[in-house]
C-alpha cells in the first residue's frame, strides 16, 4: 500500500510539473514577444529588399545611361543583358579580399561595415505603407540624421586607415562635404517640423493627407533637401570626393572584393534612402494624388520613389562636374540663406495663424 501510494504521489507530481511547464511556455509566448518577432521579420524583409534593389539599381543605371547617351549598355550576359548583375556579383564574391600591408587592418575592415550598416538602419524609420514599417519612432527624423552622421565616420575610417594620400584627401573632401550639406538638410526639414509639430514620419505623412503635400508650402525646403541629398550620397555632380581625374577613385581606392562592393552597393542604397525620404516628407508618402486608389499604398510609394531614383540617374547623364570649391561655396552662400529664409517665413506664418492666447 505504501509503495502504491508513493507511485500515485509521484504521478501527481509529474502531472503538476507538466502542467506548470506548459503554462510557463504559454506565459512566455506573450503579445509583446509576438510583436517583437513580427518586427524582426519586417526588418529582415525590408533590409533584404533594400540590398537587392541597391544591387539591381547598378544595372538599371547602366542601361538607362546607355539609352540616354545613344550607346549600348550591358547587353551580353543573358537576354538584353539581364544577367549582368549576377555576373558582377559572382565576380565580386570571388575576387581576392585583399588588405594592403601598410593599412590599419581593423579600421580598414570596419569602415565598409559601418557605412553599409548606417544606411540600412536608417530605413527603419521610413513608413512604407500604413501598416508596414520597421519602427514607428517619435524622433524618426532625428534618428535619420544620427545615422547619416555615423556614415561620416565610415568615410574617415576608410581614408585614414588606407594609409594612402589620395584616399585621405578623398575622405577629407567627403566628410567636409557631407557635414556641410547635412546642416542644410536639417534646416530644410525644420519648416516641416514647425508645421506638423512632430518628428514622427507617420505624423508627417498623415498631416499631408489632411492638407497639401509639403512640396507646395515647403518648395524651397524641398529644393535644398534634394540638392543636399545628392551631395550627401556623393552622386554626380557632387562626386568630387572620388573624382577619378584628381583622386583616382577617392577614399576607397585601396579596397577590393566584397569590401569595395559594400561601398559600391551602399551608394545605391543611399539613393534609395534619399528618394524614399523625399516621398515621405514632401510627396505624401504612401498616399496617391487627390487620394486616388488609397488601397494601392505600396504602389504609390514605390512609384514616387522610382521617379526620384531616375532623377538621380538623369543628373549623372546630363550635368557636368563642378570644382570642389564651387560645391562648398554653393552650399554656404546659396543653400544656407535659402534654408534660413524658408524657416523664418514658415515660423512667421505658423505664428500668425496660431490663435491668440494659445502660445505658451
List the helices and strands and how they pair.
Elements (H helix, E strand, L loop, with lengths): L1 H27 L2 H38 L15 H11 L10 H18 L17 H22 L3 H32 L4 H10 L8 H14 L11 H4 L9 H26 L14 H22 L5 H30 L7
Helix pairs in contact: 2-10, 2-11, 4-5, 4-10, 5-6, 6-8, 6-12, 8-10, 8-12, 10-11
Account of the 3D structure:
The chain is mainly α and 360 residues long. It has one domain (31-353). The protein has helices spanning 2-28, 31-68, 84-94, 105-122, 140-161, 165-196, 201-210, 219-232, 244-247, 257-282, 297-318, 324-353. Helix 2 crosses helix 10, helix 6 (165-196) packs antiparallel against helix 8 (219-232) and helix 10 (257-282) packs across helix 11 (297-318). The termini are far apart. The model is unreliable at 1-25 (pLDDT under 50).
Could you list some keywords that capture this structure?
mainly alpha, single chain, 12 helices
Order of helices and strands: HHHHHHHHHHHH
Whole-number tally of structural domains: 1
| SS strand fraction | under 5%
The termini sit apart by 83 Å
The number of helices is: 12
| pLDDT averaged residue by residue | 82
Pfam family, one: NADHdh
GO molecular function: NADH dehydrogenase activity; oxidoreductase activity, acting on NAD(P)H, quinone or similar compound as acceptor; quinone binding
Subunit structure: NDH-1 is composed of 13 different subunits. Subunits NuoA, H, J, K, L, M, N constitute the membrane sector of the complex.
Organism: Pseudomonas savastanoi (Pseudomonas syringae pv. savastanoi)
Amino acid at each position: 500500500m505504501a509503495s502504491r501510494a508513493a507511485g500515485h504521489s509521484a504521478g501527481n507530481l509529474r502531472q503538476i510539473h507538466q502542467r506548470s511547464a506548459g503554462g510557463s511556455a504559454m506565459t512566455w509566448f506573450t503579445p509583446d514577444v509576438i510583436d517583437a518577432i513580427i518586427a524582426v521579420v519586417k526588418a529582415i524583409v525590408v533590409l533584404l529588399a533594400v540590398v537587392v534593389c541597391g544591387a539591381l539599381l547598378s544595372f538599371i543605371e547602366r542601361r538607362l545611361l546607355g539609352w540616354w547617351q545613344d550607346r549600348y549598355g550591358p547587353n551580353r550576359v543573358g537576354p538584353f543583358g539581364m544577367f549582368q548583375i549576377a555576373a558582377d556579383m559572382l565576380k565580386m564574391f570571388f575576387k581576392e579580399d585583399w588588405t594592403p600591408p601598410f593599412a590599419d587592418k581593423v579600421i580598414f575592415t570596419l569602415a565598409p561595415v559601418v557605412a553599409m550598416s548606417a544606411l540600412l538602419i536608417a530605413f527603419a524609420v521610413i513608413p512604407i505603407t500604413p501598416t508596414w514599417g520597421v519602427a514607428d519612432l517619435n524622433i524618426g527624423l532625428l534618428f535619420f540624421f544620427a545615422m547619416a552622421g555615423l556614415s561620416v565616420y565610415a568615410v574617415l575610417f576608410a581614408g585614414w586607415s588606407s594609409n594612402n594620400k589620395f584616399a585621405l584627401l578623398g575622405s577629407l573632401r567627403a566628410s567636409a562635404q557631407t557635414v556641410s550639406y547635412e546642416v542644410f538638410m536639417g534646416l530644410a526639414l525644420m519648416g516641416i517640423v514647425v508645421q506638423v509639430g512632430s518628428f514622427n514620419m507617420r505624423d508627417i505623412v498623415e498631416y499631408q493627407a489632411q492638407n497639401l503635400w509639403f512640396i507646395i508650402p515647403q518648395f524651397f525646403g524641398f529644393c535644398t533637401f534634394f540638392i543636399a541629398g545628392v551631395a550627401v550620397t556623393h552622386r554626380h555632380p557632387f562626386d568630387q570626393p572620388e573624382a577619378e581625374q584628381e583622386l583616382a577613385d577617392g577614399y576607397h581606392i585601396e579596397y577590393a572584393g566584397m569590401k569595395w562592393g559594400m561601398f559600391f552597393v551602399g551608394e545605391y542604397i543611399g539613393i534609395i534612402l534619399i528618394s524614399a525620404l523625399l516621398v515621405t516628407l514632401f510627396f505624401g508618402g504612401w498616399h496617391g494624388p487627390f487620394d486616388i486608389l488609397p488601397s494601392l499604398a505600396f504602389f504609390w510609394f514605390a512609384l514616387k520613389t522610382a521617379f526620384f531614383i531616375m532623377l538621380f540617374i538623369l543628373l549623372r547623364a546630363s550635368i557636368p562636374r563642378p570644382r570642389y570649391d564651387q560645391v562648398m561655396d554653393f552650399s554656404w552662400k546659396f543653400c544656407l540663406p535659402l534654408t534660413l529664409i524658408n524657416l523664418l517665413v514658415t515660423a512667421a506664418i505658423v505664428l500668425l495663424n496660431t490663435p491668440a492666447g494659445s502660445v505658451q
